[in-house]
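#struct-help
A.M.: can someone run this one for me? Single chain, 281 residues.
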Amino acid sequence: MDSGSIDKNSPVPYYYQLEQLLREKIENGRLKPADALPSEAELCSTFIVSRTVVRQALNKLCQDGIVYKEKGKGTFVAKPKLQEKFIQRTYGFYQEMRERGLEVESKVLEHELLESPAGIRTLLKLSEGQKVVRTSRLRSVNKELVMFTTTYVRSDLCPGLEKEDLTNHSLYQLLWDKYGLKISYGHRTLEAVAASKYEADMLKVPRRSPLVYLESVSYLENDTPIEYFEAWHRGDKCKFAIELVPAEEMKRRKPPHRENSTFWSGIPSKQAVSFSDRTDK
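D.P.: on it. Structure tokens below:
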């Protein structure tokens, strides 16, 4: 492994310098996903540092998801995390990934018409007895399972939606093509959570693994709420980029609909779980 060097006269800690050297080799492609890093002993010899320094550097890279360790085998370069923008365009996850040249696959777990649960009625401003289409899907990008989603869509605005195939199609594109409904804007919250047994089983990760939990309500141009969804993203596969915009632009954006809505005071996770008829936590 062609290496840089540790500046022994620098006040910057040795482990940080080593971490940056290794990170640079990974980011510039000299070390590729699944490539093995040199052993701890080799790194000690190459950079003339102690094993403690090497372990500190490798542990930090592991924490950041840049590398991963396999017991008895060594340390390997991890695949880059899927990046999503927190300020997203309104055409949805499927189209965003496809536009970036990524292969998106969905496995539909449930797709049915049902009476809207109480919490969903509040968020979508429905009356008791009105129905929604609930769709739960496992989403994969480039053959990597990255998230589990459950979506509730108002059935009064898109009759027959429960009969449509959403295996490998965009929900938002279907709403536009068939029903003439265009998502205009939405409001989302993001939360770090630990995987319950149910979510761990769905996403094939150990229980209590870190997940990014996202909730969203989407609106039409006339301010009618049409969709509520919740998504659990694997923390080891995804990261979110938060986009900053000028204050003047934010003032022009539509404000959150806070009246008569529990969503903007934060729906507790247990309540969100009840929307999906789950009790295991």
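A.M.: thanks! Confidence is low (pLDDT under 50) at residues 85-90, 256-281.
D.P.: also worth noting: Residues 14-27 form the longest helix (14 residues).
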